[in-house]
Design goal:
The structure holds two protein chains of two kinds. By secondary structure, chain A is mainly alpha-helical. Chain A is built from 13 helices and two strands. Helices cover 73% and strands 2% of the residues of chain A. In chain A, strands 1-2 form a two-stranded antiparallel sheet. Chain B is an all-alpha fold. In chain B, helix 6 packs across helix 8 (177-206). Classes of the chains: A mainly alpha, B mainly alpha.
């Protein structure tokens, strides 16, 4: 290797550093400062005042949304992981390599379709005279209220993260040492027990990371709770968009955002710690 | 694996479960496609007659065209800049070892993990301080932050397949660093560079949340869709959705062809 600091090297390394420091790190740091600013007569003033923190943390509405968002995101992570696992397991172990390639390709497609359009499409399925209730009506049942329920919000979270969770689980399942599974079978370990005693522990890191991503995505999503869940009860992300878009209460929105970042960091560290627990490397 | 507890019913059940999963994933995409050609204003079963009236309605809406122009304008610039930035970061990772490299890589890959509402709020507050909010440039800035990690990841994957000695060999044969970059590294990474261009453009096409926060009056097409959603039930969303889907898929398939098609002649790619 030649000199490590040169005009040549900096040409390639600096743009990313500068761009992300200036337009990614700086806005997030600015959010911290902003949370101590005050709003007078609909104008923000630079200040050092803990009023926003005190106001927001003093509101029971805030803590209700916080608990609700946490519960919804946790449920989404658990439900998505459980529903995705048989799918990724089957793709990893029951399909030929060629079919597996196709399955992976098909799972990538949703990332390039508009999430908004898919959510709107679920409205078509779930509304009172939508597709599902239409099917129920044809056998003389319903209509069941499906839209604007927690169930619909969950469908939205699943739409958002199911493909990603399947892919992440899949990549950890593919790399499991197959001889371990054969050994378990040769030792007359039953199918279900093999899954729980061999497959899941071997793939733990990937499974936990997948659940973590589902948690992060659901925790921050405001589209599903609004357009499928009906916006009531309010999640933190709805609270942020409302506080930002109606009126100039950006400092309060910053308090919510920082609380969310803190929670996500805590959850991420806990999850990663759990994933790698007991690993030597 | 010829194990003793292979059971035909379980095999069948698992394969069927894969089909169910894909049905769930593709149901909304398919429904949006079908209902974009449906004559009824309020989507319900049974379907109305085949109609392209919503396509006509969308095509004759000047606001949609303005949104599309914005989206394309933003998408093109974002693709070029974030691919360049991502390539630089990936090359830095490939070539150099330095103090704080882990932090450097974290900074390069982290932005997509921050929830978009938070990023949107932070961007809006920050950019309006420096008088850059409410313009197309604000969306471009924000989208480059989100897209360059994708470009970085794609290029990094390609460079990891390259023998580091190739570059050193070029230097030994008298090439300057710049010449080695021009005649060795870039030709080798070319499929990844083009792949990254298409992928980042596709990501920018679909991103709506941050764009919604910072765009002001210069809305991109997905932000328009969000506006339609807030208004009322409108089959136009299906039309725009189908349209955006076709564009994005075209970009992704191009990227896929470039990434996998050329990967087979990987050793040859370095000496052309």
């Amino acid at each position: 290797m030649r000199r490590s600091v040169s005009l040549y090297g900096l040409t390639f390394s600096l743009p990313m550093l500068l761009w992300q420091l200036f337009f990614f790190v700086a806005p997030l740091v600015f959010l911290i400062a902003l949370s101590f600013w005050t709003v007078r007569n609909f104008k923000m003033e630079a200040d050092f005042n803990t009023i926003n923190w005190v106001t927001m943390y003093g509101r029971s509405v805030f803590w209700q949304s916080y608990g609700l968002t946490l519960a919804l995101a946790t449920a989404a992570a658990a439900i998505t992981s459980v529903l995705a696992f048989p799918c990724s397991y089957a793709i990893a172990f029951k399909l030929s390599p060629r079919m597996r390639q196709w399955a992976i390709f098909l799972m990538v497609i949703p990332f390039f379709t508009s999430y908004l359009v898919r959510v709107y499409s679920w409205q078509i399925f779930l509304s009172d005279n939508g597709i599902i209730n239409g099917l129920f009506a044809s056998i003389g049942m319903g209509p069941f209220p499906l839209l604007n329920t927690v169930f619909a919000t969950m469908i939205g979270y699943l739409t958002l993260s199911f493909p990603l969770v399947v892919l992440l689980q899949l990549f950890s399942l593919i790399f499991i040492d197959r001889t371990l599974i054969e050994a378990a079978h040769n030792l007359r370990c039953g199918r279900i027990r093999t899954v729980f005693a061999v497959v899941i522990p071997s793939a733990r890191v990937g499974l936990v990371i997948a659940a973590l991503f589902c948690f992060i995505l659901s925790f921050g999503d405001f589209v599903s709770p609004v357009y499928l869940g009906g916006g009531d009860p309010t999640t933190l992300s709805i609270l942020i968009t409302d506080t930002t878009k109606s009126g100039q209460q950006w400092p309060r929105a910053a308090v919510i955002a920082l609380t969310m970042i803190g929670t996500l960091l805590a959850v991420a560290f806990a999850a990663v710690g759990f994933a790698y627990k007991g690993r030597t490397k | 694996m010829n194990d003793f507890n292979r059971n035909r019913f379980v095999e069948f059940g698992l394969r069927f479960y894969i089909l169910l999963s894909f049905a769930f994933v593709f149901a909304p995409i398919a429904a949006s496609f079908v209902f974009s050609f449906n004559s009824d204003r309020f989507p319900s079963i049974p379907l109305g007659s085949f109609s392209t009236e919503w396509y006509v309605a969308v095509a004759s809406d000047p606001l949609v065209w303005a949104g599309l122009r914005n989206t394309l304008f933003v998408g093109l610039i974002v693709a070029v800049v974030s691919t360049a930035i991502g390539f630089g970061a990936a090359y830095t990772d490939f070539r150099y070892r330095f103090f704080g490299k882990t932090a450097y890589l974290a900074l390069a890959l982290l932005p997509p993990t921050i929830p978009v509402v938070i990023l949107g709020l932070a961007m809006l507050a920050f950019l309006s301080r420096i008088n850059l909010s409410g313009q197309s440039i604000s969306v471009i800035i924000a989208h480059i932050v989100i897209c360059s990690p994708f470009a970085m990841a794609i290029t990094r994957l390609r460079l990891s397949q390259m023998d580091p000695d190739l570059e050193a060999a070029a230097w030994n044969l008298g090439a300057s660093e710049w010449a080695a970059m021009r005649y060795v590294i870039i030709p080798f990474a070319a499929p990844a560079i083009f792949g990254a261009l298409f992928i980042t453009m596709a990501v920018s096409f679909d991103e709506f949340a941050v764009a919604w926060f910072v765009s002001g009056l210069n809305e991109t097409l997905p932000v328009k869709v969000l506006g339609f959603l807030q208004g009322q039930v409108s089959p136009r969303i299906n039309v725009i959705g189908t349209f955006v889907f076709v564009i994005s898929m075209t970009l992704v398939i191009f990227a896929q062809l470039l990434l996998t098609g050329r990967a087979k002649d990987a050793p040859a790619a370095s000496n052309d």
